[in-house]
Amino acid sequence: MIIDLVNKIVNGDFKAISKAISIIENNYSESEELIRKIYPYTGKSYKIGITGPPGAGKSTIVFQLTKLLRREGAKVGIIAVDPTSPFTGGSLLGDRVRMNELSLDGGVFIRSMATRGSLGGLSKRADEAGDILDSAGFDYIIFETVGVGQSELDVVKVADTIVVVLVPESGDSIQAMKAGLMEIADIFVLNKSDREGADVAVNSIKSVLSFRQKLDQWEINVIKTIASSGQGVDELLNEIKKHRDFLFRTGEFYKRRKDKLKFKIKEIIEERLRKNFWTIEREKILDEKISSLELPKANPFEIAEELIENFYQKNFLNETKSFH
Amino acid sequence: MIIDLVNKIVNGDFKAISKAISIIENNYSESEELIRKIYPYTGKSYKIGITGPPGAGKSTIVFQLTKLLRREGAKVGIIAVDPTSPFTGGSLLGDRVRMNELSLDGGVFIRSMATRGSLGGLSKRADEAGDILDSAGFDYIIFETVGVGQSELDVVKVADTIVVVLVPESGDSIQAMKAGLMEIADIFVLNKSDREGADVAVNSIKSVLSFRQKLDQWEINVIKTIASSGQGVDELLNEIKKHRDFLFRTGEFYKRRKDKLKFKIKEIIEERLRKNFWTIEREKILDEKISSLELPKANPFEIAEELIENFYQKNFLNETKSFH
């Protein structure tokens, strides 16, 4: 079953890609086998992350970028994990309709992913959805996510080039700084740059950037755009390509990818340990303990330790055979 | 050392409380011992969670609520984990100054916590900061957090009564629904209710609520406020107390607190397992594997499994003695 799905994905079948992402999103039992099988086909896509505060025009930027990339003949996959994005059902229906038009030619795949109920697994699932698109032969994968909230921000960190979109509103750049956006940006976009205060905003971003510790030789630029008309988006695409060339030239590309692989391995391990630990039997022990205890005297640490002891003892008796 | 700190906290010493929260926030090695020792003194505070989109006026609501509670002689602890909140350094400095004035009488403690770099531990740390304030004898603890982002939303779930603050802006209630705010609210506040569209907004919230599955007998009301002038905040406080009475009368209070205890135990276990797993030695094995491998051929699952096997084998050899 999974092997059929993998074959279809690798051949670029949109239906199969959709199905695969649903399997990952819902964390069905087949999801691990799927990712395992797909993994050897990954590593060819270039990943772009687009983030910024709600209302900055991220989706319109994604739309215009995609249009330019399509003109070059590139295949583009889009993963939107932004609860405020039109792609995930927000209010700017116009963008959504236009984007769906783009996808009619078969060169664009768009998928929105739910951001709630994820318990910290959001970035892992978005990353895996990216792996599916990667193995399906998309040249570029764009991750769009709102720059508020730690788990949302983690999503964009899987990208090779991270673009932070801001608008000339006052205090915006300060908020961005506080939210950690300043630290992750490879490129800044000041969108809606025909609005009042645009030059002030550019200068304020630049002055914050001047305090940022330079970790590498890459110089972070601020690109002015008016995404609604497409103005400046060609310049943004050039800047993204310049950054890509920089990453390859300096070897930074592989270094970053290895860092991400390490993070991924840690996630797999923690998920596995959690699964091994929370057997039906051990869940039952916990439920029984909790229903019989008296608040507020209960000490969560003691209960936790009893369960951990039980875990290691079972493991000792069964040796390691039941753990993978 | 820790026992001295605990004694000071229990006696309501603000400096000691501050120090304790810093220990938790930075996850210093003493943090677990601290929480263990403080735990027997907890369970007396009533916890209120205030959430909603950026700009809804959450901080002003918190300020006005605190003022009313102080008039009743209640001690109030505030934990703000909102990157857009003035308490955490946002733009509305006025609120911050006013709030600091409130705290001069010794009956109000305010603490903001960083939201970034937390890797999923944000709600755990906020909860533990709440335990510190609880043991220090605060009657009410208010958690303020922005209603965007999963980890931010998890913070508010530690509260007994959850208040969702919205404003009359169009689409706001729909966004709230998408972000999962509709599901967690015990009370709604429509702030800035003198603005155009207030009644439409109230009706739209009510109509969404009418579709919500009733899990208990509590009827969710929408309270109209103008927080800047304090209007409606007394009504909100009454509604919070009505909800508290409801929780006690129906036994729901202890049921919810037990659910939270269960969640806490699970968090402790997972943190412990992670610590046991990631010894310096095992980190080193991972780093060596990663530096020697070839991208994109590397399979993260295989590396993860090797490390897990190593973990269980060590555990087998050492029996359980080194794990707590």
TrEMBL record, chains A, B:
NCBIfam families per UniProt: lao
What family does the entry list? Belongs to the SIMIBI class G3E GTPase family. ArgK/MeaB subfamily.
Question: InterPro entries, from UniProt?
Answer: GTPase/Isobutyryl-CoA_mutase, GTPase_ArgK, P-loop_NTPase
**Source superkingdom:** Bacteria
A Pfam family annotated for this UniProt entry: MeaB
Q: Name the CDD domains on file.
A: MMAA-like
The UniProt keywords, alphabetically, are: Chaperone, GTP-binding, Hydrolase, Kinase, Nucleotide-binding, Transferase
GO MF assignments: GTP binding; GTPase activity; kinase activity
Its recorded name reads: LAO/AO transport system kinase
Q: Does the keyword S-adenosyl-L-methionine apply?
A: no
